[in-house]
Design goal:
Layout: H1 7-10, H2 23-26, H3 33-38, E1 44-47, H4 54-65, E2 69-73, H5 79-92, E3 102-106, H6 113-125, E4 129-134, H7 138-141, H8 144-147, E5 151-154, H9 160-173, H10 175-178, E6 182-184, H11 188-194, H12 198-210, E7 217-219, H13 221-230, H14 240-254, H15 258-270, H16 275-290, H17 296-311, H18 316-328, H19 335-350, H20 365-369, H21 408-421
Parallel strand pairs: 1-4, 1-5, 2-3, 3-4, 6-7
Helix pairs in contact: 5-6, 9-12, 11-12, 11-13, 12-13, 14-15, 14-16, 15-18, 16-17, 16-18, 17-18
């Protein structure tokens, strides 16, 4: 085996035609394809899970557009390194031309605000074209001023078909693997351990193949399982663990088990998970799974995020634990979550229905003459600040989208709605 370069690096595609998957971006009709061919590349953020080709795509964009290419890693680069690279880029490319140098920053979400600020002038003045790669939502992790100057492109996780195609490509193209007689009898465990991360998949595949001396080398689920479990430290840091443990945490909180919730929280903390990522997920859960059964949950979760951002590790673990226990022991309701799902589905089915005239805005004389706002009944002018009138388009009037959950607070909502609307919505 070639011990100097990992398999993932040895078979890294160098052209757009060899790039696997992400058809929505780089297929024949992909949003990036024509830009790459013309060499007119905007500053952009590539957002996707680990091992889906963000770095590879950045390299291909630079190569096929004929631009100078500079790279920085957010893990070991500071403001000084950013400014040094920008200065080199300014000297190697022309200003405001289609050949502006590309600066690729891996894991840009790890850059501090000051580090991201140091990029603004160069991006805005056209000294560089920035390509950032991130596994985290850029809306949270990239400062608004920089985000507004970049296009965001989402890379999808690989499916079974793409991952198996990658294995076959490796066996066909890599000189070390071509010299061996490899039979892919079973791939389920191999794909499962990879967690959809192509780099991880190829690392595991190389480990399995290098450990076997027989001819042919038959890849089975049992073989992969035994070997990977013996090397858990090497393959237990990102990807599958990241998504599986947060899933276990969320489901434990949703299932009202504070013991399991705190355990999975500890697993994430000890594994080095981004504390803000955990806090953001609790904000989502507070609304999706608790909702109006306990509205205070959302307030506490949001305050937890702010506190974690301010305090940092190690004290932030206490705040996360307090919030996790509170959410796990709260009454649960997904009624608001289900309501918006139903409403969005209804919108997709019915399209842009006409807004009833009586609830339209009427800021001009013409609009008033056309009937905008006519017959609207101002609720506060009526008893109990309520008057029975229709607010939905005629085509879907009387449609019930919100069904209160069966808990103390939402049962009070149900009683309130029944007292106002009677049997109209079946409350």
């Amino acid at each position: 085996m070639n011990t100097n370069r990992p398999l993932a690096e040895r078979i890294r595609p160098e052209s757009l035609s060899a790039y696997l998957s992400q058809e929505h971006l780089v297929g024949d009709d992909g949003s990036l394809t024509q830009q790459i061919k013309k060499g007119i590349i905007p500053s952009l953020i590539l957002w996707g899970p680990p091992g889906v080709g963000k770095t590879t795509l950045a390299n291909i964009i630079a190569k096929e557009s004929g631009r100078p290419f500079y790279t920085l890693s957010a893990i070991n680069s500071g403001v000084k390194e950013v400014r040094d690279v920008i200065e080199k880029a300014k000297q190697s490319g022309g200003l405001f031309t289609s050949k502006n140098p590309i600066l690729f920053i891996d894991e840009i979400h790890r850059f501090s605000k000051s580090q991201q600020d140091s990029l603004l002038g160069a991006v805005e003045k056209g000294w560089i074209t920035l390509i950032g790669a991130t596994t985290e939502n850029p809306s949270f992790e990239v400062i608004p001023a920089l985000l507004s100057r970049c296009q965001v492109y989402v890379l999808n996780a690989f499916g079974k078909k793409e991952l198996e195609a990658l294995l076959h490509r490796a066996m066909k193209e890599d000189s070390d693997l071509k010299s061996k007689n490899i039979v892919l009898k079973e791939t389920d465990i191999l794909l499962r351990f990879s967690g959809g991360d192509a780099r991880k998949l190829l690392n595991i595949f190389e480990l399995v193949v290098s450990s076997q001396d027989q001819d042919p080398i038959v890849i089975t689920n049992d073989l992969v399982s035994k070997l990977v479990q013996q090397n858990t430290v090497r393959y237990d840091k990102t990807g599958e663990q990241h998504y599986d443990i947060i899933s276990a945490f969320i489901k434990s909180v949703r299932g009202s088990d504070p013991n399991a919730a705190v355990y999975w929280l500890a697993r994430m903390i000890e594994g080095g998970e981004d504390l803000k990522f955990i806090a953001r997920r609790m904000i989502i859960l507070a609304s999706e799974d608790i909702g109006n059964a306990n509205p205070t949950a959302l307030i506490l979760a949001n305050n937890t995020f702010q506190a974690v951002t301010t305090i940092g590790y190690p004290e932030a673990r206490i705040i996360l634990s307090q919030c996790a226990v509170y959410l796990a022991t709260s009454q649960k309701s997904n009624a608001s979550y289900m309501a918006i799902n139903k409403a969005q589905q209804l919108v997709k089915q019915t399209g842009d229905l006409s807004i009833p005239l009586h609830i339209r805005n009427a800021p001009t004389k013409l609009m008033k003459e056309l009937g905008y706002g006519e017959d609207y009944k101002y609720a506060h002018n009526h008893k109990d600040n309520f008057v029975n009138q229709e607010f939905l388009p005629d085509e879907i009037k009387d449609t019930k989208l919100y069904d209160p959950g069966d808990n103390q607070r939402e049962n009070s909502f149900r009683n309130f709605l029944k007292s106002r609307w009677g049997d109209k919505y079946g409350y």
